[in-house]
Design brief:
Blueprint (H helix, E strand, L loop, with lengths): L16 H6 L1 H12 L2 E6 L2 E6 L2 H10 L4 E2 L5 H7 L8 H11 L5 H4 L3 H20 L4 E2 H18 L5 H23 L12 H24 L7 H7 L11 H32 L1 H14 L14 H13 L6 E5 L3 E3 L2 E3 L4 E4 L1 H4 L41 H18 E5 L7 E3 L3 E3 L4 E6 L6 H10 L16
Parallel strand pairs: 2-8
Antiparallel strand pairs: 1-2, 3-5, 4-12, 5-8, 6-7, 9-12, 10-11
Helix pairs in contact: 4-9, 7-8, 7-16, 7-17, 8-9, 8-12, 9-10, 10-12, 12-14, 12-16, 13-14
């Protein structure tokens, strides 16, 4: 491991705001190259410290996590998730984490694999029709719609009307975009109105009405489904025997929606973009799918054998981490790597930068899934797509399973090709997502899994769902 050294430098001042606003991830990466592992920014009444070295990330997020709170940049996020796991702190967070942990145990999540594959099969039905008509797909929107439907099914059991799910997805997207503005103006008093405040409030209220309606329906009919919402409503504190209030359930539902919809959709959008950009990676992926699946529907038991599929997802999260910035606030005076850090300093950790630190990643600008070969060791604290320490994302296993199933089923059936002339770069909203719609054509590889064949395969336990007249690989 490279030694973490501190080279005292003059702090950046207000003059960096234009560059910071124009492209925050690249500006952060530039500060690593120019000024090293700890970089100070003085914005008048607000002081920022950029932490780039994995050792210092571990100091903040693991070793001294109790000394670092959420800080002012989380005010806007709390407007969405309230006291859910993402926004809460202290005893409230500890209680909620303890209560919710069993709901995200791998054995519990296993029951959601069928809901996921069913939803993916429905999308592939639509894509097969589009492919026959030589029509392209807005993959960014398609992944958002898909992950929204998966969250709705796993959270609420039964699917809702597609138009209602799209409306809720649009409301979330609006709230996220406006939340980004509030995060980057956190040095201003919250009482100062900003453009978009009213639209942000209306978007949250719209999703609130949706969520509270479903909570009320489930409390009225508690045996309706075995899903995440039921698990949340059934949770009881071991000490008091109390369950969650409607407000607490609402906050956790918002947290799961935000983490399980937006971030997963963003990763998958980048996956399709990168597979086209790196054809050798795509070839290796297809070879694994053709060999391991051999025309069959992937099941939970199949996933450990889809090693390269998982490696592609892991490398995508290194290359374009959806949660590209993690803010913390220093609760007490501290020292990081020999640098005194005053109470009240906002500490910013950027996985985008940490994942590209040249002391820990060879050729960091190259997309190379081989970095995550199970026989290799990933640098400690240098890979943090789900955070780290006690606040490691509780839904990381859920998200990884979902992304593997999406990638396996979709890449088994199609190659995706970006329409000519579309230039893509990352933008922050606040997740790190493509700045334009990924309008892509569909090249059929094999006959996609349809909803009908999915139903037969799951009812009979036979997962051979692709007929033998396909063109690639040995089919069962």
């Amino acid at each position: 491991m490279a030694n973490a050294t501190v080279t005292p430098t003059r702090p950046y001042g207000l003059g960096v705001l234009p560059k910071l606003a124009a492209n925050p991830p690249e500006f952060f990466l530039e500060t690593l190259k120019e000024r090293g592992n700890l970089v100070e920014i003085n914005l008048g009444g607000s002081k920022l410290l950029l932490v780039h070295h994995p050792d210092y990330v571990k100091h903040v997020m693991t070793d001294h996590a109790k000394h670092y709170g959420k800080g002012s940049m989380w005010v806007a996020i709390r407007k969405m998730v309230g006291n859910g796991l993402l926004g809460s702190e202290g005893e409230i967070w500890l209680r909620q984490r303890r209560l919710m942990q069993p709901a995200f145990h791998r054995q519990k999540l296993a029951g959601f694999a069928n809901s996921m594959t069913a939803t993916i099969a429905e999308m592939l039905d639509q894509w097969a029709t589009l492919a026959k008509a030589d029509k392209s797909v807005d993959v960014t929107r398609a992944m958002a719609d898909l992950t929204m439907q998966i969250i709705v099914r796993t959270m609420f059991g039964s699917g809702l009307e597609l138009n209602e799910m799209q409306e809720i997805g649009d409301a979330f997207a609006t709230a996220l975009k406006l939340m980004n503005t509030r995060m980057w103006t956190s040095f201003l008093p919250i009482s100062i109105p900003l453009p978009g405040d009213r639209a942000f409030k209306e978007a949250i209220e719209k999703v609130d009405r949706f969520v509270y309606r479903l909570i009320a329906e489930r409390r009225h009919n508690p045996n309706a489904s075995d899903d995440l919402l039921t698990m949340l409503l059934d949770i009881r504190d071991e000490e008091t025997g109390e369950g969650m209030s409607d407000q607490q359930v609402r906050d956790e539902v918002f947290t799961v929606f935000l983490a399980g919809h937006e971030t997963t959709a963003t990763v998958m959008a980048w996956v399709w973009y990168l597979l086209e950009k790196y054809p050798e990676v795509e070839r290796k992926l297809h070879a694994e799918l053709d060999t391991v699946l051999a025309g069959k529907l992937p099941a939970l038991a199949t996933l450990p054998r889809l090693k390269y599929t998982k490696m592609v997802i892991e490398e995508t999260m290194r290359y374009y981490p959806p949660s590209w910035m993690i803010p913390r606030s220093t609760e007490i005076d501290d020292v990081i790597g020999g640098l005194p850090v005053k109470k009240g300093t906002t500490v910013l950790i950027s996985p985008y930068v940490v994942h590209r630190h040249p002391d820990f990643w060879e050729n960091p600008d190259q997309f190379d899934p081989e970095r995550f070969d199970p026989d290799k060791v990933v640098p400690r604290s240098a890979y943090i797509p789900f955070g780290s320490g006690p606040r490691l994302c509780i839904g990381n296993s859920f998200a990884t399973m979902e992304m593997q199933l999406i990638l396996a089923m979709t890449a088994q059936a199609f190659r995706l090709r970006l329409l000519p002339g579309i230039k893509i770069k990352p933008t922050t909203m606040p997740t790190l997502r493509p700045n334009k719609a990924l309008q892509m054509t569909l090249e059929t590889r094999t006959k996609p899994v349809s909803s009908a064949t999915w139903q037969i395969a799951t009812e009979t336990g036979e997962y051979a769902v692709v007929p033998s007249d396909t063109t690639t690989g040995e089919r069962g």
